[in-house]
Amino acid sequence: MDVSEIIIPGDTPGTEWRLPVLRFKGGDPKAPRTYIQAALHAGELPGTVLLHFLCERLRQAESEGGIAGDIAIVPQANPIGAAQSHFGELQGRFDLGSRTNFNRDFPLISLVDRATLIEGLDDYPATDRLKRQLLHMALGADLVLDLHCDDESLQYAYIDEAFWPEAADLAAALDMEAVLLSDGESSAFEEAVGFAWKYQVPGERQSRLPGKLSVTVELRGKRDVDPVLAKKDADGLWRFLAARGIVGEEKVPLAAFSGPAVPLDNVEIVRAPEGGAVLFHRNIGERIAEGDLLVTIVTRPGQPGGGIDVHAPQDGLILTRTSDRLVRRRGDLMKIACDSPSNVSRKAGALEN
Fold first, then answer.
1. Strand 326-327 vs strand 276-280: parallel, antiparallel, or unpaired?
2. Which of 162, 227, 174, 226 is nearest to 199 (CA)?
3. What is the structure's pLDDT at 253?
């Protein structure tokens, strides 16, 4: 395993950020190249610990000549966010300087312009340098996995329709409970990678990308940082790499993915009608029917009519729910994967994940 660091100068005198990159050299130049990163939202750590255990197995495989395709791993992709605290609380999701989500505003370029990402880096602030370095590394691979987690959540993924159903092997290997099929229309990291591949020939859009994959994996919830789960997920990711012929002596067949795969338009985001204390009546992983009582918001404690009930807009599977028990008006409460489109219109691109 080769360990190197990318140095990102800070925006004030005397500061800099170090981005460790772990690389495993493959023995077969025809095998797919893989790039995996975790903790782009710096407080989302299930992916970081997964990669800790995966690298143990990769080092063993490397010593035995068992790695076919090059693998690059960035286990802590956001040292800038990891250093941001406000009143003792980590603020690793949004850059405090620009108020921009660390998983948005990645450059949307054609693959042929990849080299321009790291040209003239002195012209950019540190957060943009970080994003350009990450995207540059990812565009040197064929398979790109961005490991995140949700709040309280099942295991699921955002996968561009251009990679589906070929990517069902990843969903099966990681025992995902659902897949959300995205349209690739945002500036999130995995969609910026997909954009570059789709427009490999500038001005000409490819709708299918065989042999390629760029995906956001949601590894359950933020508190699911656990050695048993991390080792299980590392084993699952190993099975995926083996099935794609990247590790091991031969490709390993996988069971079929059995969970729902729904477009983003079919995701109901249940929001609080008013601010107050949250009482959940249903948990993640439960299948619910239209009209079921999901949540009570206690808006005026102790007063008659001081609670508001929120009911299911349609049948579906509860994917996520907030861990907060005090919410603001219109705050997100749940995501529900449904068979039919939501009646609530959404902006193109990824959900706020």
1. antiparallel
2. 162
3. 83
318 near 336, Cβ under 8 Å?
Answer: yes
What's the CA gap between 171 and 249, in Å, rounded? Answer: 22
pLDDT at 202: 82
Is the distance from CB of 268 to CB of 341 less than 8 angstroms?
Answer: no
State whether residue 86 is helix, strand or coil: strand
Range 44-57 average pLDDT: 98
Q: How far is C-alpha 163 from the geometric centre of its chain's CA atoms? A: 15
Burial class (CB in 10 A: 0-12, 13-18, 19+), 291: exposed
Query: Pick from 267, 261, 45, 35: which is nearest to 159 by CA?
Result: 261
Cβ neighbours, 10 Å, residue 225: 18
pTM (2 decimals)?
A: 0.96
- Does an H or E element contain 53, and which? helix 46-63
Q: What is the CA radius of gyration of the chain?
A: 21
Q: How far from 96 is each of 22, 39, 44, 183, CA to CA, in Å?
A: 28, 17, 17, 29
In sequence order, which residues have a C-beta less than 8 Å from that of residue 118 and are 6 or more positions away?
132, 133, 136
Q: Which two tokens stand for residue 67?
A: 């790695």
With a CB cutoff of 8 Å and minimum separation 6, the contacts of 240 are 169, 170, 173, 174, 254
Q: What pLDDT does residue 353 have? A: 47
Closest of 233, 234, 220 to residue 59, by C-alpha: 234
